[in-house]
Amino acid sequence: MNLEQQDLRQMLETAVVAARLAGQRAMESIHYVKATVKNGTDLVTEADRACQQIIIDRIKETFPDHGFIAEEGEDGKLYKRSPRSEPALWWVIDPIDGTTNFAHGIPIFAVSIAVLFEGRPVVGVIFDPATDAMYTAVAGGDAQLDGRRLEVGAEDVGPLTSVGLDSHFESPLPAWVGTLINQSRFRNFGTTALHLAYVAGNGLVAMVACTPKLWDIAAGAMIAETAGAVVTDWRGQPLFPVDPDCYEGASFQVLVANKTAHPKLTASLEV
């Protein structure tokens, strides 16, 4: 079954509005953050929950029967509601990707919203409230930043190019991390979604993430892939499709890069 472009565009427009509303709410709260520890390792704030509810409420106004997978549920678990009609469409939401930055008053975070159909993203939106930058993609269309078409470049990993690098490594630190740091001008912005958006916009030649969840990567993976990036796990295997019905918060190992850098990085990752 295929989705009509009109339906995809309507979902994209809804996601853009929802992301902007949530981002505005987050920026209003950034200097008054109350954070708590979730699951022993992550921070969550009152704004995370408030922004997530803003997004869900806005989507339900137009698509009341769609399903949801979102980061902030009860007791540290995800929020999940199955679709109530066909075709089965799932909205995947991270209301504030980069909560640690946000909780410490650092305005480097993003709102990430995707729509999954048959286990694959068909709509992706990442909004950076601090810069008012809106990254978007829709199946059958272009990846865009504020209406301008995005396309990844062809530069390799090197001393004058940057790679987005995660910070969630197990001990001991894998040897490839040090190698990659020495080979590139590595960056860690504290938000997986923006790492993916920056690959799409050719600011980063690649990004490597260790433990992101579906809500961290769904929108950004689609935007980057639509812009021409290669999106895989560390072994070079596709990340999608996933089964939303069965998804309960499993982590991914993610490698996203332009077509020049991807083979080199896949070969260097020891997994």
How big is the Rg?
17 Å
Number of strands: 14
Strand content: 15-25%
Listing every helix as H and every strand as E from the N terminus to the C terminus, the arrangement reads HEEHEEEHEEEEEEHHEHEEH
| Low-confidence residue ranges | none
Structural class of the secondary structure composition? alpha+beta
Quaternary arrangement of the chains shown? single chain
CATH topology of the largest domain: Fructose-1,6-Bisphosphatase, Chain A, domain 1
Strand order of the largest sheet: 4-3-5-6-7-8-9-10
Q: What average pLDDT do the residues reach?
A: 93
The helical percent reads 25-40%
User: Which second-level CATH architecture of the largest domain applies?
Assistant: 2-Layer Sandwich
- Return the domain count: 2
What profile does the largest beta sheet have? 8 strands, mixed
Instruction: Identify the CATH homologous superfamily of the largest domain.
Output: Fructose-1,6-Bisphosphatase, subunit A, domain 1
Short description:
The chain has helices spanning 5-29, 46-62, 99-103, 175-183, 192-200, 214-226, 261-268, and strands at residues 35-38, 42-45, 67-70, 79-81, 89-97, 110-117, 120-128, 133-138, 144-145, 148-149, 163-165, 206-209, 230-232, 254-257. It has 271 residues and is α+β, with helices and mostly antiparallel strands.
